[in-house]
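ingest -> fold -> write
write: protein_1
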Amino acid sequence: MKKILLLSDTHSHLDDTIMKYVNQADEVWHAGDIGDLSVTDAIKRLKPLRAVFGNIDDDKARLEFPLHNRFKCEDVDVWITHIGGYPGKYNPSIRAELENNPPKLFICGHSHILKVIYDKKNNLLHMNPGAAGKSGFHQVRTMLRFIIDGDKIKDLEIIEIEKKE
């Protein structure tokens, strides 16, 4: 059993509230637009981190993190990418792979809009944790946390952080 904290679009922002949830997780997953690598460095000092780079990330982030990160967590096939779209509107560059070899859990960021949708056509769960940072149009900063237990994804929680200033 693994407790996962899922965040995205920190845009160089990390605060005590985010770190409180990092400390409660077994692993932290970041779906891109990290910004300054001090964000991921701080997380990695405390917990195992899986991440991808996003469209705002510089060469340093692109050297450290992949565009796509596909892996197994317990018995769940997970695919994280930054610009992935959502069911019915997947990014054309990955649509064929999603349809031909779908993961059980597909995660992306980029939109700053929290979404959790079950994709019946591709038999996968899509998650976008919204944005944990302060840059962007979103009004409430959000993250997700959940448990992976064997082949089950359960106990999903939405974490809302104070409105942006």
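write: protein_2
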Amino acid sequence: MAITKINRNFSSIRNAILLLIVILFSSCKSTPFIEIKENENAYLIRNNNSIGEVFKENFETNEIDKSLKRFTPTIEEVNQAEEILKLDLKKRNKSKDKRFIFRNLKDYKRQYLGYINSNGDKMLHVSFDLDKNSKNQDDRFWKEEYKMILDGGVSYWITIINLKTNKLESFAINGVA
């Protein structure tokens, strides 16, 4: 009788520990971005680790073909794109550069441009700028102009994310001069 009671107690403790482990691991998901400030061309977003600027559809840029329709990405679409990016980077984590980017993703400021491709899919063109002090939002240049940096290696890179297919369409790390 005593052994049965010990087995039941052990089983209850084991189940409680397993439940605690599941809760801990499920809470490790990245913190989503939230909107914190808006201006006429863009809105600023932030989470515990990163900061970004989402440019509205009326923002003039040469990065997107003028014949394509633009849209203003929502917070939900930006968070979806970030999850797609993280999952894809885990898969692509083969080269030294991609491992560096994956480990330091939180240190990149982001810029998001939304457009609709010829198939009607919503796309996000995202620019990344390595900034170890990425929580600093005082640098007005990256918030008012979509930065196009040609060199800099892993400090600057871009990706295009298809929100309909949940895939990265392209991924390009800048060259080094």
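write: annotation protein_2
The first strand starts at residue 34 and ends at 38.
The radius of gyration is 21 Å.
pipeline exit 0
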